[in-house]
Each structure stands twice: as structure tokens, then as C-alpha cells.
Amino acid sequence: MIKFIGQCVINLIIAVKYMFAGNVKFSSIISNAASIGYDSLPIALSIVFIAAVVISLQISKQFLLSGGESYVGGFMAIALVRELAPGFAALAISARAGTAVSAEIANMKVTSQIDAIKTLKVDPVGYYFAPRIIAAAFAVPSIVILSELLGIVGGMVVSYVTIGLHPARYMNSVWLWLNLKDVYISILKGFIFGIIITSVCATQGYNTEGGAKNVGISTTKAAINATIILLCADLIIALIFYF
User: Fold this and answer.
1) Contact 70/169 with Cβ under 8 angstroms?
2) What DSSP string runs through 184-229?
């Protein structure tokens, strides 16, 4: 795993150099942003919304019994913005778009398309990695923000239906508890998670050797490695900003 992470970092550095050299086409970034962000939007929003609804169902009655129903909105906002929305959205995008990136590059590798790019004296790491990294770095934070908004609204609806908590009291506790710092950190998480997803999955696909069977194996490894590294990165960010 350590060796693989080192490969991811090296490939990321190569991709960044390729970006600053001005070799990345804007049209390529847009197409990758559509495949990574837009195509993953429904599943990411659905997962975060369902998680918010379930948590709101679990805590609303308990807060009511203890006389703290006014704090349901604040609790939901903190939980969603700090952890649930960035983490769940990133995992959903990793499962949907990350594996697609890995499979696409792995297929190019086993069919010698990457070797063909090398013969044209084009750096395959920069050419294939850079547009995807840029696209994910901007697409994932956007999905995270939308997930947070939808999750907060979902919690508000559930708390109103279950315990009759007025939306004004719910939103008032959201504004009181939530800080701009939390929002900024969630956007930073989305930015970092987007880079991790594409770097890890693309590197796994690039390392694929053999035939079509190995493409499937590589895709599975990409999903596992991306999940582990995302969770570790989430822990590190939490320790840095909230410990």
C-alpha cells in the first residue's frame, strides 16, 4: 500500500507539471467533469439524503424526550457539513466515477493505446491524469455543497413530520451552530477527495498488466484502495482542524 501511495503521489506531481505547462485542453476538462460530477450526482445526493433522513428519524424523538428538540437542526447541520456529506459523497463518487476512470485507463493500457501515445512523445500520465484530476477537484466540492443543502432540508422535513418541529426553529439552530469555517473545511475536503479519487483510481488502472480479466481485477482494487485512502485522509483532516 505504501508503494502504491508513492506511485499515486509521483503521478500526481507529473500531472500537475503537465497542467502548468498548459497542455490540458479545456474541452477535455469539461467532458471529464460531466462524467465524474454530473453522472455521479444522483447517487451521491441520494445516499446523503437517505443518511440524513435516517439520522433525523433516530435523533428527533430522543431530543424531544430530553427537551432539546430545538437543537435537532444544529446537530444535523454539524454532522452533515463536517462528516456525512463530504464522506458519503466522496465514497459514492469513488464507487461510480472512480471505478470508471480506472477501467477506462486499464483498458487503454491492455490494448496498447498508452504505448501508442508514448510513440507520439506525449506523456501518458499527464495526458490522461491531468484533465480528470482538474475535473474532479472542482466537481466533487460542488456535489458536497449540494449534498449538504439537501441533507439539511431532508432533516428539516423529517423532524417536522415526526415531532412537529417548526422549520423556523430547525433553521434557527442551523444558523446558530454552523460556522463558515465548517463550510470551508467541507469544500476543502471535497477538493482533496476529488484529487485522491482520480489519482488513486487512475494510477491503479495505469498499473494494469495482462488482458481483459485484469481490467476487472484492477477496477476492484481501485475501489478498495480509494475507499481506504479516502477514510484515512478524512481522519487526518479531522485531526488537523478539529482536534
Assistant:
1) yes
2) HHHHHHHHHHHHHHHHHHHHHHHT--SSHHHHHHHHHHHHHHHHHH
The rounded distance, in Å, linking the Cα atoms of 170 and 76 is 10
Q: Which helix (H) or strand (E) holds 20?
A: helix 2-20
Average pLDDT, whole number, for the chain? 87
In the numeric block, which cell numbers belong to residue 82? Answer: 463536517
* Chain center to CA of 186: 11
Residues 147 and 48 sit within 8 Å (Cβ to Cβ): yes
The model's pLDDT over 17-50, given as tens digits with 9 standing for 90+, comes to: 888 887 888 888 888 888 888 888 889 999 999 9
- DSSP SS3 for 23: coil
Please give the radius of gyration of the chain, using alpha carbons only, rounded to the nearest integer.
20
Please list, in sequence order, all residues whose beta carbon lies within 8 angstroms of the beta carbon of residue 236, skipping any fewer than 6 positions away: none
SS3 content of the chain, % helix, strand, coil (to 5): 90, 0, 10
Planar angle of CA 239, 242, 243, nearest 5 degrees? 60
Provide the residue range defining the domain that includes 30: 2-242
d(CA 89, CA 144): 6
- Tens of pLDDT, residue by residue over 187-223, are 999 999 999 999 999 888 888 887 777 788 888 888 8
Q: Looking at the 3D structure of the chain, how many domains does it have?
A: 1
